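Ticket opened by: R.M.
Priority: normal
Category: complex prediction / small molecule

The reporter submitted a protein together with magnesium ion and asked that the result be attached to this ticket for the collaborator who will pick it up next week. Submitted input follows.
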Amino acid sequence: MTIPISQIILHKLRMNLKSPFSTSFGTFQEKDFFIVEMIDQDGNQGFGESVAFSSPWYSEETVGTNQHVIEDFLIPLLQKHPVSHPDEVTKVFAPIRRNNMAKAALEGAVWDIYAKRNETTLAKALGGEKKEIEVGISIGIQPSVKDLLNTIEWAAEEGYKRMKIKIKPGWDVDVLREVRKHFPTLPIMADANSAYTLKDIDHLKQLDELELMMIEQPLEHDDIVDHALLQKELETPVCLDESIHSFDDARKAVELGSCKIINIKIGRVGGLTESKRIHDYCKANNIAVWCGGMLEAGVGRAHNIALTTLDQFILPGDTAGSSRYWEKDIIEPEVVAKNGMIKVPDTPGIGYEINRQALEDFTISKKVFTL
Ligand code: OSB
Ligand code: MG
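Result attached by the on-call engineer:
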């Protein structure tokens, strides 16, 4: 039986991060993004969140390109091709190249509505069994080493299971040495967001003495060849983020030896169905995966939690609690991480209610599409 989608509502939101978040490519403070609301003929509501940012720094997609692609291409495809299972959405969207975050926002809403129609949780609909998930935290580039040490100490007290420290040239080996000195046994890793080239091999090799869990995306955002050369020279495992946009990207990177670990972001790979395919391939090939983050509001956070219940997500992800990012989130209850664990909700779909008042308060525009 097809899922009788009757309406899609695109909510454009603006939310302000509690504190600026800095990476090697730029700083985030105010965040504009889309929440997709989908309504079926039986009155079920499904929600998805686009993780595209306002500027094309992390990838080529933006809030603006999402709007164009969702309105002018993806919704018309859904109007023409009804689906009976969310896995079919990937095929319906296949004629459109890339634009994975736009696709994932709609696909996520279809998954939520599908789980609700079947009176099951999104986690179970995906095949996940964990009752709680382990999470870590991503710490942006700080004004000083002292600030970084203080933040790590706070995160350790909160119980986060691993600390990811953003690095860039000039804020890397020396800073991490200092961190290691103060926290000799803490699980730490580094994320470079493509700030280095192969010319930096000797510099990066110094990281090997610090026993990092991994280094994430040290080289170009679109590279898997140079990463394979780098991984041969480094003892520290390489984890790929930006370079992996699909199942085939993951397969090729693993075959080339470009990484030992993969960060799966639902938006970057075009949805939950593709995320699951990458997960299954990594499981069969003994590659550890974890769930990345894009400074999501509650809806995106809920999708990340559901995905992380799959069993090859053996490393703590970046899905910290709502209060790490927002004064007020758009879901109820908000996501709470206690001792680095998040309880997987057991009510149907994403398992969190939308806080309609908060959604409205953060809305800057809204558009309704009838199917
Ligand atoms: O590289 O994982 C990344 C934030 C924005 C863009 C890219 C990245 C990040 C993070 C933060 O590391 C993850 C989070 O806390 O949501
Ligand atoms: Mg990253």
